[in-house]
Model the fold of this input.
Amino acid sequence: MPRIGFWEILIIAFIILLLFGANRIPDMMRGLARGLRGFKDELKGEEKAETPGEKPKST
Done:
């Protein structure tokens, strides 16, 4: 399997910059980070904190 070097990563980053534009990339990365954070929380089994106005769920 070929290794990806510095120049290949630089070329890929340049192509992504051309396709999506500099203004759109931070929004895409922010959305990706939120998705990964949510996925990680679900794997851990942690529930989100209840909002102050929400009634506790009865079991």
Summary: Residues 8-41 form one domain. The chain has a mean pLDDT of 81.
